[in-house]
Design brief:
five-stranded mixed β-sheet; two-stranded antiparallel sheet; 177 residues; 4 helices; alpha/beta; Glutaredoxin; globular
Amino acid sequence: MHDPYVLPANLPVPTDDGAAEHLNGRELPDLTLESSAGAVNVRDFAVIYVYPRSGKPGVPSLPGWDETPGARGCTPQSCAFRDLHPDLGVPVAGLSAQPLEDQMEFAARNRMPFPVIADPQLELGAALGLPTFEIAGHTLYKRITLIAKDARVVKVFYPVFPPDENAADVLRWLRSR
C-alpha cells in the first residue's frame, strides 16, 4: 500500500537542468492565491517551497511517480518544514499546482502551521519561469525552494534532494546570514 510519509530507497536523483538559474534576484510577483489559510500574497513569504503534489495514504501515486526524478517526497518535505517552522523564524508557505480542496485536506491532515497554497493555473510559475514537468496528463512544478528578502529572491534551492532534508538546509542557510 502507498504511504506518502515514507521515502522508498533508491529514488532517482534529479539533476540540475539549469531551469532555475534566472531566479536569483527576481522580484516575487504581486500575486494573491487561495491557500489553506485563505487568500495570501506570495510576496508576504520569506520561504516558499514549491512541490509537485502531495499524496494521500492508501491512494496510489500517478503512474511512474517513483521513477520520475524529484517527484516523490512532497509529504516528507512538507512535514519537515512543519516540524522546523518554529526555528525558521520567517514566514513560510508551501505551494503546488494542486487544487484548493486537496491543499486544505493535506494541511488539515498534517497540521500545517503555515499556508499551503493552491496554484492549479501555475500562475507563480508563469510569472517567474519556474520549472515544471509532465506526468500522466498533469503539468506539475519541479521541486524548488525560494528564499526572499523584501519580496526579492536571494537564494534558490534547486534541484531539491532529498526532499525531507530541504527544511534543514533552509534553516542552515538562514542561520548563516
